Each structure stands twice: as structure tokens, then as C-alpha cells.
Amino acid sequence: MLSRLQKVDKDTNDLIEMVKDYLFSVGVRTSKERAWDIFQAIHQLPYKFLVERNNEIKYQGQGQHITHKHGNQLLTIKNIGKFELKGVSVKKDKAKKASIKFTPSKEIKRLVEESIKVIE
User: Fold this and answer.
1) Under a CB-based contact definition with an 8 Å cutoff, are residues 15 and 35 in contact?
2) Which of 78, 83, 107, 112 is the most interior residue, by most CB within 10 Å?
3) Which pTM value belongs to this model?
């Protein structure tokens, strides 16, 4: 589903250009619109994967961690990070809903820590 790209945000346009350049570097010639569609589709895949594997989950309780017992609710991708599908509650009305939490890999965290200087 190729849609007309009308992004006015400079950061988004820069990201699209980076994706297009990367695709070109691996031998894929494409337009900005198609590069954007490819980026969006790839970024959504881990979330869609967890949704497809779980049509219903148990509420684990606040502060509980997903473990190997909840294998279908956990997706760990080397050098990318960890995706956790959790049952959480909304404090206002105690309603339970599903939520996905992403934790970047150690490599990505290290890249950020080593590359960015924090000043006061």
C-alpha cells in the first residue's frame, strides 16, 4: 500500500532519507515513499508478531516481570532488544488492558551512553 508521502517534519524526512540510503547500500533502489512504507512495516513486525501469538493474556499484577512461563508474551531479538506483552491495570477505574513494553539491547544502551555527553 504505497501512499503519497507528504511529511513536513524535517526529522522524519531525514530518517526516510537514511532508510532510502541504507536500502540503496544493500542493492535496493526505491523511492522515498516506498522506503517509508518499508521502514514502517519492519518497525511494526515485532508488535504484530506478539499480537498474533496472543489473543488473550492473564493479568500478571503490577510490578511483575514476564518470565519464561509467559513465553508467548516475550520476544527477545539479539542486538535490538526485548518486547514484553503485559496485562496492566489503569489506576483510575482498575480496568485491565494489554500493553507492550520495549527495552533496548545492551548494545544500543551502550551506544547511547558512550556517544552522548550529558551536561548540566
Assistant:
1) no
2) 83
3) 0.76
- Parse the chain into domains and list their residue ranges: 1-53, 55-120
Find out whether 23 and 30 touch, Cβ atoms under 8 Å.
Answer: yes
Phi and psi of 114, rounded to 5°? -80, -25
Angle at 83 between CA 101 and CA 65, to 5 degrees: 65
Long-range contacts of 5-12 (CB under 8 A, 24+ apart): 5/32, 5/33, 5/36, 7/36
* In contact, 54 and 85? CB cutoff 8 Å: yes
Q: What CA–CA distances, in Å, run from 53 to 12, 47, 92, 106, 119?
A: 31, 10, 29, 26, 43
Bridge partners for 104 per DSSP = 81
- Please report the sign of the dihedral spanned by the C-alpha atoms of residue 47, residue 52, residue 53, residue 57: positive
